[in-house]
Amino acid sequence: MRRFKLGVGGLVLSLGAGCAANKPAANDTTIAASEQTDTEPATPGETGSPGETGSPDETGSPDETGEAPYTGPLNVLVVLVDTLRADHIQSMGYPVENTPNLLAWSEDAVIFERMISQDKNTTPSLSSIFTGLWPSTHGCCGQGQGQPDHAFETMAEIFQASGYLTATLYKAAALDDWGDFWEGFDERHLVPGDNVDGHSAEELTDYTVAWLEAASERDEPFFAFVHYLDPHLPYRAPDEYYERFVPADNTSTLDGTPEQMNELFATPGYTITDDDIERMLALYDGEIAYWDEHFGRVLDALEGLAIDDRTVVAILADHGDQFYEHANWSHLQYHQEVIHVPLLLRVPGVEGRRVTDRVQTIDLPPTLADLTGVTPAASWPGRSLAGAMVGEALAPTDILVGDADAHAFINKDGLKYILHQPTPNGVRLYDLEVDPLEENDLVQNVELLDQMRAEAAAAIAAAEALRAELLDE
Ligand SMILES: [Zn+2]
């Protein structure tokens, strides 16, 4: 029998002290789904209304405005910004003014400064976000290869089973036939309209704002996943943003399209210049600024609809991008510029802070379940970060990125082993604690290399064993 907790109770139990705005609801009891009306999901008024089920002290004292704090179920809005590097947002200290809206909003957010994505490609990374599993477990390995199996319980499914309206809104047509990928979503919205030059934040935002308006009218809480594409190649933001960050003295002729870069970089005798890299980065920042401008409208909508006090918002990316830090562009390698992604979580009643512990994509589903009081899937190997959001220490953990054929493995000490395939000499070794930019390859240290290779192999074996175990059930 599936069991779940209602409303904000799970949040309070998880976060404990330091979360005064979210007093425990008096009816913070675990109830069986079968005790609920079959088709009637939990509504805010039914779950922890002050005075109805407990004393005022237990249900939330009136605040200075005279209104009792909201104690019903929390909505969840996950905003994924494809190809957004962690170090290219102002909230992470990036000096270019490309994300002012995110920066202002993130003053009240918990910023996970060392978040690692489970893959360097979109579909395996998204599959890990949805299933809470490593690529070697869910089986979507490599871009566009395979799909998560029906057998794996997804984040959307657990929210759906707990009475949430679940919806995904996106502009990537390539994801539209990604069947099992979308398990658990009541609604799938491939937002119409061409992605001219790859930019679509305006249309997606228009659609998302309209969707939020409609969803806010409904009784049940929502779990929505919004996938922005913009920072991904081509780096062709609309005119207003396109060259905004390109220095006046830059002489590169790159136009931001991968076709031109492919052609130019393949030209015999051509050596990429500092101006080329500077321009690529500037065009990329233009895309991010364009996204931020429209993302700001989503934030305005949450506030305007008065649901910002009852909505958990998570911002993250599926991977970053490379600008010749390691002799490559796009996102072809498991270097930090590709797998270090943003994670910002804003939860009503939780103060903003920075978390420096290393965390990973597969931690997101159990975290969102914990914050909302929804029962996590038993199959999820990740851990809830809710405690870390209020200052509790997180134990160091191993992180596996990618699959058996090509991967990165970061151990508890911050040592990172990379197996790039099929490139020759594809093994790399770094100490992220002293070399976060991966400039000093330790691969000549044979003893350390053997140790890390063995640790990575064990992690992959564990991920594959979990797959066998889950498919066997
Ligand atoms: Zn992607």
Q: What CATH architecture of the largest domain do you see?
A: 3-Layer(aba) Sandwich
Question: How many structurally independent domains?
Answer: 3
CATH class of the largest domain: Alpha Beta
- As a percent range, the share of helical residues equals 25-40%
Please identify which CATH superfamily of the largest domain we are dealing with: Alkaline Phosphatase, subunit A
End-to-end gap:
16 Å
Structural description of this entry:
It contains 13 helices and 17 strands. With 473 residues, it is of the alpha/beta class. Strands 3, 4, 5, 6, 7, 8, 11, 12 and 13 form a 9-stranded mixed sheet that branches. Strands 14-15-16-17 form a 4-stranded antiparallel sheet, covered by helices on one side. It is globular and about 65 Å long. The two termini are 16 Å apart. The structure holds zinc ion. Zinc ion (ZN) binds next to loops. Residues 82-83, 122, 232, 318-319 line the site of zinc ion.
Short account of what is shown:
With 473 residues, the chain is an alpha/beta fold. The chain is 29% helix and 17% strand. The two termini are 16 Å apart.
Properties at a glance:
single chain; 473 residues; alpha/beta; Alkaline Phosphatase, subunit A; 3 domains; nine-stranded mixed β-sheet; four-stranded antiparallel β-sheet; 13 helices; binds zinc ion
